[in-house]
TrEMBL record:
The gene is LOC103266778. GO terms for biological process: endosomal transport. It comes from the Eukaryota. Pfam families: GCN5L1 (PF06320). This is Biogenesis of lysosome-related organelles complex 1 subunit 1. It catalyses: L-lysyl-[protein] + acetyl-CoA = N(6)-acetyl-L-lysyl-[protein] + CoA + H(+). Belongs to the BLOC1S1 family. Acts as a protein acetyltransferase. Negatively regulates aerobic respiration through mitochondrial protein lysine-acetylation. May counteract the action of the deacetylase SIRT3 by acetylating and regulating proteins of the mitochondrial respiratory chain including ATP5F1A and NDUFA9. Acts as a regulator of mTORC2 signaling in response to hypotoxic stress by mediating acetylation of RICTOR, thereby protecting RICTOR against ubiquitination and subsequent degradation by the proteasome. GO terms for cellular component: BLOC-1 complex.
Length: 94
């Protein structure tokens, strides 16, 4: 009887230790799942911010191109007006 109890106690200690380890692992898995979900959410937010920033950069580029186009048009108009004005001065002095 003592031998049997000693063997069972020895086995129970191992089983109890395995059970405690399994509980700790289950807890760690749950914690890891929560943290992974939070990280995925945060990563999604970062991706959204980067996409918004990229879109803003594109819009700035569009405005810059628009401004260059307007500037070129204004220079063309100024040159044409200057040409007409000089032509009028020459006609008046002749």
């Amino acid at each position: 009887t003592c031998l049997t109890e000693a063997l069972v106690d020895h086995l129970n200690v191992g089983v109890a230790q395995a059970y405690m380890n399994q509980r700790k692992l289950d807890h760690e898995v749950k914690t890891l799942q929560v943290q992974a979900a939070q990280f995925a959410k945060q990563t999604g937010q970062w991706i959204g911010m980067v996409e918004n920033f990229n879109q803003a950069l594109k819009e700035i580029g569009d405005v810059e191109n628009w401004a260059r186009s307007i500037e070129l048009d204004m220079r063309t108009i100024a040159t044409a007006l200057e040409y007409v004005y000089k032509g009028q001065l020459q006609s008046a002095s002749s």
